[in-house]
Amino acid sequence: MNSKPNIRSFDLDELSRFFVKNGEKSYRAKQVYEWLWKKNARSFEEMTNLSKNLRLFLDNHFSIPHIKIKKFQHSIDGTIKNAIGLQDDLVVESVLIPAKKRTTACVSSQVGCSLDCHFCATARLKRMRNLTPDEIVDQVIEADKQSCDYYGHSLTNIVFMGMGEPLLNYDNVMRAVEKITSDKALGMAARRITISTSGIPKNIRRMADENAKVGLAVSLHSAIDDIRTQIMPVNKRQGGLKELLSALQYWYNKTKRKITFEYLVFKGINDDEQSIKALVDYAKKVPSKVNLIEYNPIDASDRFQQADAHILEAYKTALNNAGIVATLRKSKGQDIDAACGQLANKFE
C-alpha cells in the first residue's frame, strides 16, 4: 500500500494552499483538480498542462489511488456486478442495473456492514471500515463507463444501496455526493441520487438540516415494531418505528421531497392482513411511495422465503386504494448474486 498521501482526499482549497505554500500559483490547484475529477487521471504524467518538474514534484509527494475491478459478471438480464479491489486489498461490490431508458449504479459505502439485518447477505460480513469519498466516486465512474460501453448512454441514476449503511458513513458519503454533483467534478444532478438507509433518525435529520438535494429511501420491511425488530435489530437500537417516522416527517417538512419505502415481503413473516394494514397506516403519515420487492434467497439454508405473488398484489391494491403509489419491483441479477440483499463478496 502506497504511504504517500492520497491527493484525491484534498479539496480544492486545500490543494490551493499546498501550491501557494510551495511557491506555485494557486490556479494550479484548479488544473490538478480537473485532472483528478473531470478527466479521471490515474497518474501525474497525464497532466500535460503542468510542467514536467511540477509533475515530478507532485509524484514525489502524493499518490493517486484508484479502485480496480477484480471480477466482472454480466447477468442474463443485463445486470452487471463488479467486485471492486481497494488499495488495502479489501473488496466491495457494486452493481449496474439497466432499464429501458436508464441505468442505475448501486454503490457500496462500507466494507461489510455493522448492522445485522437477518435477510441480507452483506450482514454476514464483518464491517471492516468505511469507504473513502474517492472509493465511492470511483464506483460511479466505472459504472458510467460500463453504461456507455454496454448500453450506449451515460449513467442516469445512483443509489447508495450496495454494501454497508450509508448513514453510518455519513461524512464520506456526503463528500462523495458533493464530488458527483459538482460542476468541477462529475456534474451529475443530485435529484438522480438516492440514499437508501435502514433508518438512522439522527442522520436523516442531519441530511435535512444540511439541505441535501438527494432522494431518501428507507428499507422498512415491516410497519410493526416487533416484526421489524425481529428481522432488523437496528429498529430497536434506533428508537423504533415512532422515532423513524418523526425523522421522516422532519425530512419532508424541510425538503418537501417524498420518501420511498423499500419493502420486502416474506412468507410467514409479513404476508398477512395485519402487516398490510400497518404499512398502509404508516405510509399515510408521511408523503411517500412504496417499492414492493421480491425477496432474493441468500442460500439453501435461508429461513426467509419469498411470499406468494397474490400477497404482493394485495399489498399493492391496499396501498393504491389509500392513495399511495406502490410498484412491484422485479429483482434483477439473481443469477450472479447481484440482486437486492445478495451482495456478499462470494468471489473471495
Describe the structure in your own words:
This protein has eleven helices and twelve strands. 35% of the residues lie in helices and 17% in strands. Strand 8, helix 6 and strand 9 form a beta-alpha-beta unit. The protein has two domains: 55 residues, DNA polymerase, domain 1; 269 residues, Aldolase class I (TIM Barrel, Alpha-Beta Barrel), CATH 3.20.20.70. The two termini are 20 Å apart. Helix 1 packs across helix 2. It has 348 residues and is α/β, with parallel strands linked by helices. The protein is elongated and about 70 Å long. It has a ten-stranded mixed sheet with strand order 1-2-3-4-7-8-9-10-11-12, with helices on one face. Strands 5-6 form a two-stranded antiparallel ribbon.
Question: How would you summarize this macromolecular structure in one to three sentences?
Answer:
The chain has helices at residues 12-21, 27-37, 52-61, 133-151, 170-181, 201-209, 225-231, 234-237, 240-255, 273-283, 309-321, and strands at 68-74, 80-85, 91-98, 103-106, 110-111, 129-130, 157-160, 193-197, 215-219, 259-264, 288-293, 326-329. With 348 residues, it is an alpha/beta fold. Strands 1-2-3-4-7-8-9-10-11-12 form a ten-stranded mixed sheet, covered by helices on one side.
Tally of helical runs: 11
In N-to-C order, the SSE pattern is HHHEEEEEEHEHEHEHHHEHEHE
Instruction: Tell me the helix content.
Output: 25-40%
Proportion of beta-strand residues = 15-25%
Largest sheet: 10 strands, mixed
CATH-defined architecture of the largest domain: Alpha-Beta Barrel
CATH C-level class of the largest domain:
Alpha Beta
Number of beta-strand segments? 12
Shape: elongated
What distance separates the N and C termini? 20 Å
